[in-house]
Amino acid sequence: MVSDLMGSLPRVEKALRVLEKDGKGKKTLANHAESLSAFCDWCVEREYLAEDPLKRLRRFDTTPLVRRRALTATEIRKLLTAAPPDRRLVYGLACVTGLRVKELTSLTIGHVDFVRGGLVLDAAWTKNRKPGFQPLPGAMAGFLKELCQGIPKDHPLLPIPSHPARSLDIDLGTAGIPKWTEEGKVDFHSLRNTFTTLVIDCGANVKEAQSLLRHSTPELTMNVYARTRSERLGELADRVGERLGYDRECEIYVKRPESRKTGTPVIPFDSMVYRRKMLVEAAGIEPASESASAGASTCLAFSLRSRRPGTRQARFPGSPGEGTASRVAPQDA
């Protein structure tokens, strides 16, 4: 009865603690608590209860204890090459759709829409309990069309292994892909992270990525599933420099070291690669360079010249005084 809800906070907390001891995850406990709270809110709205008995129920921290990482395109190709043909199709479809294990298991031949080139998702088995449509790459849609010919529509689309996580671990080992790295671990749900990251890498905006993932909020898409790649961040930094003209307007610039690929640390100024470019006009206290033969010129990247203690500022061709001078003049005694 509704009246039993009055003063139910201690009983609800005790029941949730029992579920926690039984091994239920924090997300599951949070879902139970939210369902009970929603029912109490409904009772208050309908005036069955004077106040919400669970308004002081503490929220569960659903922050994942372990971070999942997204596979790179190279790792995906390695995985698909190493996996048996049946699991290869499962992994491939998971990477290009982001569908969860339960959703992949529920797919039948009849859920493939060959006209629109995608998968029809039923509200009965989607996580958000809403119908949907998941577009497929043209090549994948064509492959499924050939695969499904002559097969009844109620036949399962994919041969999902009985233990997907265990099978993936085996195939990761065969492909030489580490399960754990400093960026996190790889499990079957990581393929959904992989799909999210690939979608964003391909230029999708936040709304498009949220729609493809069928998330209720953009925060869930960007803060929980999307991952950044260090090489991608470096490429973006290069593009910002190009936009500002650092690659063409400086006579002296530092070429990005190869350590991003090799992992070898580079000591500043010891491994610089210098290249002559367009000379910069006179600005501030620095005079304009007279010709490309000058040893140095004003550089956008280095507006102030450094000098060692005990030395005075060097003079360059074109500066007041001597026509030529050494770069670093010893301090007068």
Report on the architecture of this protein.
Among the domains are: 63 residues; 153 residues, Intergrase catalytic core (hpI Integrase, Chain A). 39% of the residues lie in helices and 5% in strands. It contains 12 helices and 7 strands. It has a 3-stranded antiparallel sheet with strand order 1-2-3, with helices on one face. A two-stranded antiparallel ribbon has the order 4-5. Strands 6-7 form a two-stranded antiparallel sheet. Helix 1 packs antiparallel against helix 2, helix 3 packs across helix 7 and helix 9 packs across helix 10. The chain is globular.
Strand content: 5-15%
N- and C-termini, Cα separation = 99 Å
Return residue spans where pLDDT drops below 50 for at least 5 consecutive residues. Answer: 249-256, 265-280, 289-309, 313-333
Please identify the top-level CATH class of the domain at 73-225.
Mainly Alpha
Outline the biggest β-sheet: 3 strands, antiparallel
